[in-house]
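If your schedule permits, I should be very grateful for your opinion on a structural question. I would ask you to consider whether the tokens describe a fold that such a sequence might reasonably adopt. Thank you for your consideration; the sequence and its tokens are set out here.
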Amino acid sequence: MDFRLTEDESALRESIEDFARERIAGVIGDLYEKGEFPYELVAELGKMGIFGAPFPEEHGGAGGDFFMLCLALEELARVDSSVAITVEAAVSLGAMPIFRFGTEEQKRRYLPRLTRGQALAGFGLTEPEGGSDAGATKTRAVLDGDEWVINGAKCFITNAGTDITDLVTVTAVTGTLSDGRPEISSIIVPNGTPGFTVGRKYSKVGWCASDTRELFFDDCRVPAANLLGERGRGYAQFLRILDEGRIAIAALSTGLAQGCIDESIRYSHQRHAFGRNIGANQAIQFMIADMEVRAHTSRLAYYDAAARMRAGEPFKRQASIAKLHASNAAVDNARAATQIFGGYGFMNETPVARMWRDTKILEIGEGTSEIQRMLIARDLGVG
């Protein structure tokens, strides 16, 4: 396979690289420490067409594909992961379910604002008692006339409570299948619907400038027409969305891993100890070389998964491989970068401290590393 970027892909990558360094790098530290959502940056990215990268122009998109979104995420995460995860969740988890499974009316109603970055959407799958067991859904939705009545709770939901959040798509048990298993469906819940309460922002270790909240549904009524896709197919739909999202998280992880390299190289020239810059020490050289190996192989992994997705080939295993490897690489690179920076790496004012704080969730969100290993083994016919 030829993984060299096309002219359009290179132009997109370069434009996001410039934006991240010129607009995000100088302000994100303050936003991060204050826990403030980056509204201005989101609006600018919306005008650049990033939120619409993988969607057709008829829905307000840029007419690109999922790989172009991944390129943008990698460049954003080289500088900051809070902005990167806001974009990733808004596109691959928020807007994509509506594009993949929505009716034409639902697409016309919601997608134009979502694909232009004028509004955000959340993806309500995880529950307080469920964690990785998304099939153990306890949220219930009962059809009462021409309305769904929803009761339950969701947790760790990104982009659920911002001032520009339009909706959250949630999974809920809507009945029982013939074999006794719960029938799980997806339902669109617009922001501001009576009975739908958004909890306070979590106090998080990382991603401090992104929005993450718990959601509560207490006799929340939405029109029956808000069913997304076929009744009883909600779980399968969200699994498809997660397969795609894992490629996006791998791209984000690769960007963070690369950002650790960028900062470490800069610091290795700047910092002097024992009469010379620390980059002259073989120990530092080897650490940075190992970091580069991890970032490079992570990039190849997500490029491969995205290429298979683009070609319409099976990509589930490759997406899990990319997500597992890239998230591990990000954690390892952030730890190494912090070591290279020494005491300064432990100070929140330095980029590598933010990167170190942001990495751990990459081994948890959108399927833990253990889940990825399980999926890989299962696809190989093991277990």
